[in-house]
């Protein structure tokens, strides 16, 4: 679990008059650290759908466990009409609250532009950086090959998401739609739990 500065400040506000500032700070630090240590991400499912099988199709899309501690995602999208020079990605982070509701991000980005100029969209750049080293989607357009994500591990998500961003505990879905030449061609939905 992770709590931000605002939460800690309000929680310990009443103690400020009774405790010295030294002990208040120590209490906040311990409270924050305990929550930070216990949070963890677990992948629970992945669903990949081709929306135009004449244009692309998934050869495989799987969530696999090698043991209790190592779970990863692998997928391969075969592209039938290359090169691709005009790609947009619509992605949303959804949280399970009586159905999946938009939680933090719901944006559409020009993937070719951002691959060329990563600082042009920091949010998309952050999410791309999560899987870039496990993928062949790591260069500018044109895309002239099938798209692969190979053994993208949960543990990497723990270091990049849990330790960087203060998300509340619960079930999440990362939903992406891949749009080429203004036509939706594929969807990838990754489900996970922050516990």
From TrEMBL:
Pfam families: DUF1091. SMART domains: DM8. InterPro entries: DUF1091. It comes from Drosophila suzukii (Spotted-wing drosophila fruit fly). This is MD-2-related lipid-recognition domain-containing protein.
């Amino acid at each position: 679990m992770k709590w931000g500065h605002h939460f800690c400040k309000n929680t310990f506000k009443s103690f400020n008059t009774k405790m010295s500032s030294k002990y208040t700070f120590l209490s906040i630090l311990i409270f924050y650290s305990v929550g930070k240590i216990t949070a963890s991400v677990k992948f629970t499912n992945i669903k990949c759908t081709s929306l135009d099988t004449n244009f692309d199709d998934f050869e495989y899309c799987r969530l696999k466990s090698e043991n209790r501690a190592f779970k990863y995602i692998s997928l391969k999208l075969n592209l039938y009409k290359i090169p691709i020079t005009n790609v947009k990605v619509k992605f949303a982070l959804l949280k399970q609250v009586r159905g999946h509701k938009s939680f933090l991000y719901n944006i559409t980005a020009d993937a070719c532009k951002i691959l060329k100029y990563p600082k042009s969209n920091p949010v998309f750049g952050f999410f791309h950086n999560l899987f870039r080293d496990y993928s062949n989607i790591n260069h500018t357009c044109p895309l002239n090959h099938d798209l692969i994500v190979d053994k993208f591990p949960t543990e990497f998500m723990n270091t990049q998401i849990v330790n960087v961003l203060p998300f509340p505990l619960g079930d999440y879905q990362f939903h992406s739609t891949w749009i080429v030449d203004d036509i939706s061609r594929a969807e990838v939905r990754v489900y996970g739990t922050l516990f």
